[in-house]
């Protein structure tokens, strides 16, 4: 099988150039990034990252120098050597000799962070944490899986944390629950809570503002058309005052009230709250998405709540005798004294 | 039912005075016989009888034979008592729809409870004459209006007495609730002009208000205004036409109308010479209304060219909105969101609620539990048996849901309470300021007598100016505004109550149909 080498030299590379290429050349297309690749790599220049991405997209098949040269003709042999050596030194790439041809393979970043001197316990815990991916894993589950006792596990976790191989993340769902995951992973949305959380605090005001602005947008759309609504048929008019989540998102982004980048999904969640407020209606479109429009409620506020009794917190205790009674009711007195006509 | 009892007694007192309200209060505990009422109230028999006559002729109480006809018991009809406070609205609708004379006729019926048609006309004619002595009363117009009221079923004929030899009169069992008796406009005119005093042939055919017909009108009003608010005036007009067409082919209190062909709607518009925006876009309007979540209309199963009116759905949607408003006003916007989420998801766990509502954890819990405490939502526990979930783990699911019937019932009771409160507060204010009000009345009658003596307006004003001190005047103004506010509140409360009662009506019907 292939034999690992520590580094390469220009001579080797030129030699490799002369020999017939056996590796099947595949058209190289930018492949979607794996979750591991999401973590930005520190200390590498653009070219190196390009090459690394290419290698990562090929996975275990490996890439020969030819392919790199073809994909990035702007890089000369010297550059390539420099880049590869840099990557190898950083532990991101391994060099293999595959039937006489030098092949580069991207190393799993986790593997890259393996530091010599880890004992068996550390390795076991590390693998367990690695398996949990970006969802993280709770300390109790690690204990159950690894069969280590609590004190020992704490020590191992501390040591791994110290080596910057894993990190602890607090989940928004349960504030005190620490979740462990690999150091360079971006925590999952379900843990960070997405756009609505900053440091595990739910940003209630932010949601409220978005809620208001989304409604404002839909109401504005309706008002803009109000003068010439009868130029169109009612059905057409309804379509004109409706907006899809994407349009609302565009409006919100242009407003610039959000520091984080909102996704269409986020806006849909906000629109859903408006729907449950009864302020907008949604219509199912042919492509399975919804369009939203502002609507009026069917009734004005009813007479019941215009009178203090309708909103009275102690109405259940109210009767003709006792402490709470209409004759001496403070709420009624205040309301009757009020000059302003509330009806 | 304490709220309802108190309220009924108050309404009876306001409309019929002390004795009938005392009788009503006795009867509200359950049916009673005449001797029992008498002994409980310690009133002379004649007074009790008089009071009962008032209650029965106004349709708020009834009697029935018990012990195989040996005794008679009297029963109060609380729901009928409540409709008494709705009468001003009935009068307003009638005046709106059929004109001033019809309103006067109905007013006369309300005053007497039951009355024959000719008597009704004669009384109204006399009243018109008194109000406007110069003008001659148009008896024929009144006659036509009265007939129209019967024809439109605003008045319902009381069954004739067949046999009154026993303890309880036996009524003729006829279906002809709206059959006119023999009437003669000429005879009536003769009586009005005082030329004859003969008994008119229909003197024993008496009529009372058909409350259901009035309620139907009010319901239409609510539905049309809801549609107008949600869409526009054209849609409201369309709803009006649809309802009218619905009554031609369906009994008005059905929950779903029979199919109405679209061509017929168009014909109606053509006949009414309406060729506007609505006429041009009728199909689209129907589509828009059908697709709306309020579900007032739906395409009939008989084909796309037929439309059915879903009265039950419409009332449900309106009730939903009503409850939403109440929750929002009492607890806030976010609790309303939570209330609506739970209602639309049927059964819902706490976690689900806060996820959809986008409300922080603690707040969402606070609101949910508050709603639960105030009985707007209910909690169901589902526990998984220990055997299936493993030893020691006893998982319990807590699911929130809205029991709409219960919530409506509760809000209705609170409305009763509020209505009762408004009335007793008004009584209280009146007795507190009794002296002042009396003084005002005295001054008014004094002014009237002065006017009759031929004093000029200015003189009277000057003379009366000093009779009341400025603080008294401001106080009187305040008291008057309080009265106004309270009666307005009562009127509006009745609107709320009406919608909730409509909801209950259709719900009850649904249960009846199922069984």
Give the helix level of chain B as a range of percent.
55-70%
Strand order of the largest sheet of chain A: 1-3-4-2
Major sheet of chain A: 4 strands, antiparallel
Strand content of chain B: 5-15%
Strand residue content of chain A = 5-15%
**What's the gyration radius of chain A in Å?**
32 Å
Unreliable runs of chain B? none
The name CATH uses for the topology of the largest domain in chain B is: Arc Repressor Mutant, subunit A
Q: How much helix is in the residues of chain A?
A: 40-55%
Total DSSP E strands of chain B: 14
Q: From the alpha carbons, calculate the radius of gyration of chain B and give it in angstroms.
A: 28 Å
Number of strands of chain A: 12
Structural class of chain A: alpha+beta
What's the pLDDT, averaged over the residues of chain A? 75
Number of helices, counting only DSSP H or I runs of 4 residues or more of chain A = 15
Function (chain A): DNA-dependent RNA polymerase catalyzes the transcription of DNA into RNA using the four ribonucleoside triphosphates as substrates. Specific peripheric component of RNA polymerase III which synthesizes small RNAs, such as 5S rRNA and tRNAs.
Protein name (chain A): DNA-directed RNA polymerase III subunit RPC6
Keywords (chain A): DNA-directed RNA polymerase, Nucleus, Transcription
Region (Disordered) (chain A): 1-27
Summarize, please.
The complex is a heterodimer of chains A (343) and B (515). Chain A has 15 helices and twelve strands.
How is this structure best described in words?
The complex is a heterodimer of chains A (343) and B (515). Chain A has 343 residues and is an alpha+beta fold. Chain A contains 15 helices and 12 strands. In chain A, the strands form 4 sheets. Chain A has a 4-stranded antiparallel β-sheet with strand order 1-3-4-2. Chain A has a 3-stranded antiparallel β-sheet with strand order 5-7-6. In chain A, a hairpin with a 2-residue loop joins β3 (93-98) and β4. In chain A, α2 packs across α4 (77-90) and α12 packs across α13. The longest helix of chain A is centred in the middle third of the chain and has 23 residues, at 204-226. Mean pLDDT of chain A is 75; it is low at 1-6 and 13-42. By secondary structure, chain B is mostly helical. Chain B folds into 5 domains: 2-77, Arc Repressor Mutant, subunit A (Orthogonal Bundle); 99-209, Arc Repressor Mutant, subunit A (Orthogonal Bundle); 213-309, Orthogonal Bundle (Arc Repressor Mutant, subunit A); 315-402, Orthogonal Bundle (Arc Repressor Mutant, subunit A), CATH 1.10.10.10; 412-449 and 467-514. Chain B is built from 24 helices and 14 strands. In chain B, β2 and β3 form a beta hairpin. In chain B, α8 (117-131) packs across α10 (185-192) and α12 (233-249) crosses α13 (262-271). The longest helix of chain B has 45 residues, at 470-514. Chain B is globular, with a radius of gyration of 28 Å. Chain B starts with a helix and ends with a helix. At the A-B interface, α10, α11, α13, α14 and α15 of A face α11, α15, α16, α17 and α21 of B.
């Amino acid at each position: 099988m292939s034999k690992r080498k520590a580094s390469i030299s220009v001579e080797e590379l030129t030699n490799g150039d002369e020999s017939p290429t056996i590796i099947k050349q595949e058209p190289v297309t930018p492949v979607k990034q794996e979750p591991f690749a999401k973590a930005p790599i520190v200390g590498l220049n653009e070219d190196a990252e390009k090459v690394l991405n290419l290698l990562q997209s090929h996975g275990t098949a490996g890439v020969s120098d030819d392919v790199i040269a073809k994909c990035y003709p702007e890089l000369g042999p010297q550059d390539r050597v420099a880049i590869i050596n840099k990557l190898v030194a950083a532990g991101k790439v391994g060099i293999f000799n595959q039937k006489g041809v030098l092949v580069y393979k991207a190393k799993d970043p986790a593997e890259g962070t393996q530091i010599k001197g880890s004992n068996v316990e550390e390795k076991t815990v590390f693998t367990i944490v690695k398996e949990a991916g970006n969802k993280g894993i709770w300390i109790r589950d690690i204990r159950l899986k690894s069969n280590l006792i609590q004190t020992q596990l704490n020590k191992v976790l501390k040591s791994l944390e110290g080596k910057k191989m894993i990190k602890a993340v607090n989940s928004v769902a349960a504030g005190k629950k620490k979740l462990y995951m690999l150091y360079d992973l971006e925590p999952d949305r379900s843990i960070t809570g997405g756009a609505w959380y900053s440091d595990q605090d739910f940003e209630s005001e932010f949601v409220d503002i978005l809620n208001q602005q989304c409604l404002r947008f839909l109401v504005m759309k309706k008002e803009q058309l109000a003068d010439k609504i009868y130029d169109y048929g009612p059905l057409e008019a309804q379509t004109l005052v409706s907006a899809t989540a994407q349009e609302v998102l565009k409006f919100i982004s242009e407003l610039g009230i959000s520091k984080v980048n909102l996704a269409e999904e986020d806006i849909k969640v906000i629109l859903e709250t408006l729907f449950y407020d009864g302020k907008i209606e949604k219509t199912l479109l042919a492509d399975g998405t919804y369009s939203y429009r502002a609507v009026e409620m069917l009734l004005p506020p009813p007479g019941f709540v215009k009178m203090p009794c309708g909103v009275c917190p102690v109405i259940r205790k109210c009767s003709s005798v006792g402490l709470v009674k209409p004759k001496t009711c403070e709420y009624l007195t205040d309301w009757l004294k009020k000059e302003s006509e509330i009806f | 039912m304490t709220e309802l009892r108190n309220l009924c007694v108050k309404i009876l007192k306001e409309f019929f005075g002390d004795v009938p309200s005392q009788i009503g209060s006795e009867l509200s505990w359950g049916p009673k016989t005449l001797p029992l009422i008498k002994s409980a109230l310690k009133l002379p028999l004649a007074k009790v009888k008089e009071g009962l006559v008032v209650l029965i002729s106004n349709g708020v109480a009834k009697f029935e034979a018990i012990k195989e006809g040996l005794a008679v018991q009297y029963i109060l009809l609380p729901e009928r008592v409540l409709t008494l406070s709705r009468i001003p609205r009935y009068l307003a609708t009638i005046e709106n729809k059929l004109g001033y004379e019809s309103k006067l006729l109905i007013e006369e019926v309300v005053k007497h409870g039951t009355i024959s048609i000719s008597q009704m006309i004669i009384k109204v004619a006399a009243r018109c004459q008194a109000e406007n002595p110069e003008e001659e009363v148009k008896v024929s117009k009144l006659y036509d209006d009265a007939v129209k009221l019967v024809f439109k079923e605003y008045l319902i004929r009381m069954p004739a007495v067949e046999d009154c030899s026993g303890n309880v009169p036996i009524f003729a069992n006829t279906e002809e609730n709206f059959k006119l008796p023999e009437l003669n406009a000429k005879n009536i005119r003769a009586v009005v002009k005082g030329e004859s005093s003969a008994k008119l042939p229909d003197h024993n055919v008496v009529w009372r208000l058909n409350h259901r017909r009035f309620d139907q009108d009010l319901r239409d009003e609510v539905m049309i205004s809801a549609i107008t608010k949600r869409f526009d005036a054209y849609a409201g007009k369309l709803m009006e036409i649809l309802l009218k067409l619905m009554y031609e082919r369906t009994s008005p209190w059905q929950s779903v109308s029979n199919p109405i062909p679209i061509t017929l709607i168009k014909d109606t518009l053509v006949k009414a010479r309406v060729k506007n925006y609505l006429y041009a876009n009728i199909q689209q309007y129907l589509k828009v209304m059908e697709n709306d979540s309020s579900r007032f209309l739906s395409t009939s199963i008989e084909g796309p060219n037929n439309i059915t009116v879903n009265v039950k759905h419409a009332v449900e949607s309106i009730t939903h909105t009503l409850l939403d408003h109440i929750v929002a006003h009492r607890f806030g916007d976010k609790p309303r969101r939570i209330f609506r989420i739970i209602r639309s998801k049927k059964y819902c766990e706490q976690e689900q609620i806060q996820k959809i509502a986008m409300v922080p954890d603690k707040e969402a819990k606070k609101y949910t539990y508050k709603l639960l405490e105030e009985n707007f939502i209910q909690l169901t526990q589902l526990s998984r048996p220990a055997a299936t979930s493993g030893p020691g783990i006893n998982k319990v699911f807590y699911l929130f849901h809205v029991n709409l019937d219960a919530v409506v019932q509760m809000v209705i009771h609170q409305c009763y309470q509020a209505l009762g409160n408004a009335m007793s507060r008004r009584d209280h204010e009146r007795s507190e300021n009794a002296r002042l009000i009396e003084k005002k009345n005295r001054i008014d009658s004094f002014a009237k007598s002065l006017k009759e003596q031929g004093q000029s307006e200015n003189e009277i004003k000057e003379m009366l100016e000093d009779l009341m001190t400025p603080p008294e005047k401001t106080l009187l103004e305040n008291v008057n505004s309080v009265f106004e506010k309270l009666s307005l509140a009562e009127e509006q409360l009745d609107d709320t109550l009406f919608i909730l009662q409509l909801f209950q009506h259709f719900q009850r019907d649904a249960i009846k149909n199922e069984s």
